[in-house]
Amino acid sequence: MTLTSTDNGLILGEDGKVRPLWAASDPLMRQYYDEEWGMPVTDEQGVYERIVLEGFQVGLSWATVLRKRENFREAFHNFEVDTVASFGEEKVEELLQNAGIIRQRAKINAAINNARATQALREEGGLPQLVWSFKPEVTPRPLSMSEVATVSEESKALAKALKKKGFSFVGPTTMYALMEAIGIIDNHLVGSHRRGTSGIWGE
C-alpha cells in the first residue's frame, strides 16, 4: 500500500482515504479502524466484550489483542455474559493453557469477575446504560496525534463507577480507550475519512 504523509500526521493511502499512522499500514488494524473503531456499541454483550479486551490490552499493544480476538471469542464463548460468569477455577486453568489468548491469570479472573458484575447491573438498567451515561457534552476534535488525550474527567468517573460496581481492570486510561472504541467520543483526527461517521457526533 502506498502511503503519503500529510501535514498533521495523517496518512493518505493509495485508496484515497486518510487515516492516522497507527491505522494506515497493518491490514488488520486498517480494517478495524475503517469498519469498527468509534462506531456505537450499545448492547450488553458488545460492551462487555470491549471492556474485557481493553483489560487484556493493558501493558500491550492493541494490535496484539486484535490478532488474538477470534481466539478470545472462542475461548470466552463469544463473550456471552452468563456463560463466562459461570466459569470456575478449572476453566481458569484451562484458559491459562490456551496459547491463542493472552495467558495472564489476573486478566482472566477479571473477565469472569466482570461478567458477574455485568449480571448484577441488569437490576439497575444494565452495563450499556451505565457506560453510556458518561458520554460528555462535547467530543474531542484532535487535529494531530499529539492532541489525542489518554484520559478524561468522564473516563475517570466511569472507571470509579465501574470499580464501585465490582469491575476490575477498568482504570481511567483503559476506560478512555473504551469510550473511543465504542463511539462515546469521536477521537478520529479531523481530516480522517472516519471523522463524524458514527452518527453520534457531527464532524
Automatic annotation (TrEMBL):
Zn(2+) binds at residue 188. InterPro entries: Adenine_glyco, DNA-3mA_glycosylase, DNA_glycosylase. GO terms for biological process: base-excision repair. GO terms for molecular function: DNA-3-methyladenine glycosylase activity; metal ion binding. It comes from the Bacteria. Keywords: Metal-binding, Zinc. Pfam families: Adenine_glyco (PF03352). This is 3-methyladenine DNA glycosylase.
